[in-house]
Write a structure and sequence with these properties.
The chain has 12 helices and 15 strands. It is an alpha/beta fold and 332 residues long. The protein has a domain of 214 residues: Rossmann fold (3-Layer(aba) Sandwich). The structure holds NADP nicotinamide-adenine-dinucleotide phosphate.
């Protein structure tokens, strides 16, 4: 197949690209920057912003399928930036598919699209979208996902995957942030409930994308649906954090603050960052405080049934790989 991966130079996109190449697909990537790792693999890189239709049209020309992985992630920033990258960018991906008669679009969503601040235990794909969001990222990802699912038709088959907390070698979000906070002694457990959370090792998340793409055709079982993608091994959140810290030879987090205090810190930080126009991300937001104080784990039943998805790399194996990578990177 000729495949376009948007964000092929990113954490998840990079592993999707490698897995596609390994099985013999011809892969292109679309993103703003030049990614030397992709050049080494012989991947053709098309440079542009998701808001630039012409650049996307050019990248998609002649492709059989698009994996739309690129997005603006993060907990802070102007709404317009999230909207443009995540919503307008996704509209442009549809337009490129339609312009070139591409019939298959796999969209990378996020479980945060259904997060309403309360515990989710064993949740499935029937969970509704909440009426309001506390951050621009889940809000715009939800808008894009709803567009993707509504666009499913007899000429364009779409599917949306919701990988939860992706981690592993190459992680440029979760792991580096945790390590930086731990080193600065700014990590605190929030509350003392042993809330279970799901995570997914990056190779498993990528594998789910390939499985979904292979089963995606107009009118097929997976077309027009969304799927939670996890490791199927929910674990108490702070145990997960401590395992990641252990992989980096850092001590566990022991100090605790109450959920109420964390939420208040989120309100104060968000107010300060808004009024004083401070740069960077606030150390706490209401969204993060709630995410860290609640359970969120999901059933894999639909992904197993429709995608034949079975996580290949267990948490234990993943921690070993993470340790090896951190060692190679001389992070330890
Ligand atoms: N990481 C997680 O835990 C997680 C969890 C759930 C869902 N997801 C979803 O998974 C996807 C990939 O996430 P990731 O963690 O791999 O993120 P990432 O490493 O930041 O990769 C995103 C890629 O998208 C490209 N990109 C971003 N904005 C763009 C724009 N405006 N135009 C063109 N390219 C753009 C970036 O490349 P350039 O900078 O070169 O443009 C980057 O390589 C996203 O859709 C995210 O919402 C991630």
């Amino acid at each position: 197949m000729k495949v376009l991966v948007t964000g092929g130079g990113g954490f998840l996109g990079g592993v999707i690209v490698r897995q596609l190449l390994e099985r013999g697909d011809e892969v292109r990537s679309f993103s703003r920057g030049e990614h030397p790792g992709l050049a080494k693999l012989g991947v053709q890189q098309f440079r542009g912003d998701l808001t630039e239709r012409d650049a996307l049209f050019c990248a998609a020309s002649g492709c059989d399928i698009v994996f739309h992985v690129a997005a603006k992630a993060g907990i802070w920033g102007p709404y317009q930036e999230f909207y443009q990258a995540n919503v307008t960018g996704t509209e442009n991906v549809f337009a490129a598919c339609r312009a070139h008669g591409i019939q298959r679009l796999v969209y990378t969503s996020s479980p945060s699209v259904i997060f309403d601040g309360r515990d989710v235990e064993g949740g499935d794909e029937s969970l509704p979208y909440p009426s309001r969001y506390e951050a621009h990222y889940p809000r715009t990802k939800a808008m894009a996902e709803q567009m993707v699912l509504a666009a499913n038709s007899s000429s364009l088959a779409t599917v949306s995957l919701r990988p939860h907390l992706i981690w592993g070698p190459g992680d440029n979000h979760l792991v580096p942030r945790l390590l930086a906070k731990a080193r600065a002694r700014r990590l605190r457990r929030i509350g003392d409930r042993p809330c279970l959370v799901d995570t997914v090792y990056v190779d498993n998340a990528a594998q789910a994308h390939l499985l979904a793409g292979d089963r995606l055709f107009p009118g097929s079982e997976v077309a027009g649906k969304s799927y939670f993608i996890t490791n199927g091994e929910p674990i108490p959140l702070w145990e997960m954090v401590n395992r990641i810290l252990a992989a980096a030879a850092l001590p566990p987090v022991t100090q605790t603050v109450s959920p109420g205090m964390a939420s208040l810190a989120g309100v104060v930080c968000e107010t300060l960052w808004s009024i004083l126009q401070l740069s960077g991300e606030p150390p706490m937001t209401r969204f993060v405080a709630r995410e860290l104080a609640t359970a969120h784990w999901f059933t894999l039943a639909a992904a197993r049934r429709d995608l034949n998805y079975e996580p290949k790399v267990s948490l234990e194996e993943g921690f070993v790989m993470l340790h090896k990578w951190l060692k190679e990177k001389q992070v330890l």
